[in-house]
Structures are given as structure tokens and as C-alpha cells.
Amino acid sequence: MTTEISDRQFEIVEAAGKILTASGVSGLTIKNLAKQMKFSEAAIYRHFTSKEQIILAMLGYLAESIDERFSRLPEHGDPEERFKSLFQEQFRFFKKHPHFVVAVFSDGLMEESKRINAKMAKIMEVKIRYLLPVIVEGQRKGVFTTSIPAEDIVHIVMGAFRLQMFKWRVTNFQSDIKITGENMIRSILTLIKKK
Amino acid sequence: MTTEISDRQFEIVEAAGKILTASGVSGLTIKNLAKQMKFSEAAIYRHFTSKEQIILAMLGYLAESIDERFSRLPEHGDPEERFKSLFQEQFRFFKKHPHFVVAVFSDGLMEESKRINAKMAKIMEVKIRYLLPVIVEGQRKGVFTTSIPAEDIVHIVMGAFRLQMFKWRVTNFQSDIKITGENMIRSILTLIKKK
DNA sequence: TATGTTTGTAAGTAAACACTCACTTACCAG
DNA sequence: CTGGTAAGTGAGTGTTTACTTACAAACATA
């Protein structure tokens, strides 16, 4: 079920991402979007019926992108390696497209509509769908600790990841997220590995 | 340095908190605030010079409240117990005043002004100022693991806490945050305790 | 050459926003 | 009784917002 999107629509979605990064949710207006696209406000409405549809298209693209990239990762093998590559993949993507960080982790967007709220929840759910089995298998194989439930490990890991992204964003993407992020993942792995 | 605030001003701040909980950042308008206070919009401006000042007063109150409550906790003793009570205190407070959760953890607010951004950073800094020494002492006493730096433990713990608050908020404060939160803290403690 | 479709524009709309102003009321001190 | 001050109101202000409408140019197809 791939939601189709035209080239022009994708350009607009990318422009929206850039605006989000530069000026935050409150900066994402049709006026700014038109300016970024270098054409009129009305032209935006030739490609999307509403602002909500633009945000939904952006989140939809992100959800599919994450799903696709995760599905390419090996489904078997060392859980520790799979755990690592899951996050390496995320850091690589966000390093390349920092303007999407604001979109995924901005709760300001959620307030705009129920549908946007749902899409963001779905993105989070996709990540858990790939992460949880890795943890569970790691526990089964005796690589990860069984002293706490797999769900709690997922919560702790996701929390650390989100906070990492938050810090990266509020410092204006200055640090290299691949390096600082992977350091953090290493620390977490040290914690959850069976001694 | 206690920022003074009149009774009426505090009522307005509380009303703002309630609106944030019910309708989010976008719902926090002067019109809604006036409605909640049951008087006119213009009356708000008798007590605050701008909307920004209201938000700053709210965050200022929170920062002081957190600082004060933390400073009351015992400064010595079992690090594990101190760690626990630090978060128990937080969960107790937010259970009692859920309308402030949105204020502290809402990045939508941050975009409104530099000063608001700074105040929110300060609240986070206060928490770290109390949390980090507990971790460091716990490591020194051999209670907490030294396999990763204290700063990384703080990051992981804070991330898990924030995500817990986030989940609580998006599920409309349905669960008992004292119970679910303390379960989470217990899991984290299991992870960071020296084996 | 005619015709339809796509993609753009200039100029608007109504609603929502933070904030202001002239004025009133209540109360308290001298 | 008088005058000052704190705290309220109704009716505005100008600006920004998402979105609309009437129209035009470009271009492929019949």
C-alpha cells in the first residue's frame, strides 16, 4: 500500500521539512511554503487540498521510508549487531535529512489534527515492531539481560533515542549525530547486555 | 531569588495550565484564558503585560517548585533510595498537577520565544543538578554500575522519564503515573545496579 | 487550428490572533 | 466626602492565518 505522490508534491513535502527545521511548527505556513517553493500560495493548493494533507504526506513518506529501510536489514543473526544496525540506520537517515527530525519528534504538530496524531503514533509503532523482536531474540539467546521485560528495554532505548534527537535539534544540529548517537547506543548496549 | 506573583496571577497561571492539558499549546489563547477565568480578555492584561509573560510565569513557578521539592529530599544516605525518591517526588507532583506536564514537556511552547526556550532548558538543568550527584555517589559507593559514564546514565534515565510523561500525556492521563512511573524506575534501577 | 487539461497567478475572503483604549466600578486612605 | 488606585468591561485595532475565486499561459492531443 504505497501512497502515491507526484514529483511536485514531493518537492513541497521537502520544502515543508526544511521550513520545520529552520522555523519550527509555527513557521510552517502556506505563505512560507510558497516562498520556499518560489511560487504563489494558491499554487500550493493545486497539489494539496489542505495544509493537513501536506503534513500527512510528509509523515506518510517518513513512515514508509523507515519501514522500507528497516525491512532491508538482515532478519537473522547476532541480536547485538541487529540492534546496532537498526539505530545506525536511523542516525544515517537523520544525518542526511535533518529537516525531518522536527517532523517526527515535534508534539506541536500532533495538536493540529487527529489524523496527524495517528500518523505519528504509527511511525513510533513501526520502530517498535522492528525493535522488539530483536530484543526478545537477544534475551532468548542469552545476549541481553532478562532481569527486566523486553518492553521495558524498548521503552528505555526509545526514550534515550528520542532525547538524543531532542538535544540534537535544540543545539541546531551542530554535533555529528552518527557519532554521538552511536556512542549512546554503545552505552545502552553495555547496560542491557547479560553480564 | 523568588519571583513574586500575585494571587490573581497565580490563578491565571493555573488556568493556563488547565487549558494546556485540555487543548494543547494551540488552545492556549487569550480568549480561552479569559473564558476560563470568567472575565474579559482585556482583564488578563491587567495582570500580565503579554502572553509570553504568562508562560514565563508558569515555567518560573515550575522551576522553583521543582528546585524546592528536590532540595527538601535528604542529601545523604543510600543512593538507590535517593534515586527512587527523586522520581517518586516527580511522579507525585505531576499526578497532582497533570496540567503542568504539557508545559514542561511541550516543545511547541519553545518556539514562541527565546526566553521561554531558556526557561525550559533551566528546568531540565535543575533536574540534572540533583540527579547527577546521586548517580556519581552511587557509582563511587559501588551501588551503580561504572561500566558507562554517569552522564550517560543520566541521559538514559531522563529519556525514559520524558518518554513516560509523553505516553501518559497522549493517552490523556488515563493510567496512574505514580504506579506506571515507579515500575519504570524500578526497571531502570535493575539495569544500572552493579551486579 | 481548435480544445481540454494542467499549472500557475493576483486579489481577495472570513476567521482567529494578541493586544489597546476609553471608560466604569469597587474599595480604601486621608 | 474626596481622590487615587486596582481591577474590571465592550468595542475596537492591525496582522496573520488557511483557503478561494476568476482568470491566464503553456502544452498535448484530436
Please supply descriptive tags for the structure shown above.
mainly alpha, homodimer, DNA-binding, 195 residues, 0% strand, 10 helices
Summarize the structure.
Two copies of one chain form a homodimer. Chain A has 195 residues and is an all-alpha fold.
What is the strand and helix layout of this fold?
The structure is a homodimer of 195-residue chains.
Chain A: H1 7-27, H2 30-37, H3 41-47, H4 51-72, H5 79-96, H6 101-105, H7 107-110, H8 114-140, H9 150-170, H10 177-192
Helix pairs in contact in A: 1-2, 1-4, 2-3, 4-8, 5-8, 5-10, 8-9, 9-10
Chain A binds a DNA duplex (30 and 30 nucleotides) through helix 3.
Structural overview:
2 copies of one chain form a homodimer. Chain A contains 10 helices and no strands. The first copy, chain A, has 195 residues and is an all-alpha fold. In chain A, helix 2 (30-37) packs across helix 3, helix 5 (79-96) runs antiparallel to helix 10 and helix 9 runs antiparallel to helix 10. Chain A is elongated. At the A-B interface, helix 1, helix 7, helix 9 and helix 10 of A face helix 1, helix 7, helix 9 and helix 10 of B. The first copy, chain A, binds a DNA duplex (30 and 30 nucleotides) through residues 8, 29-31, 39-47, 50-51.
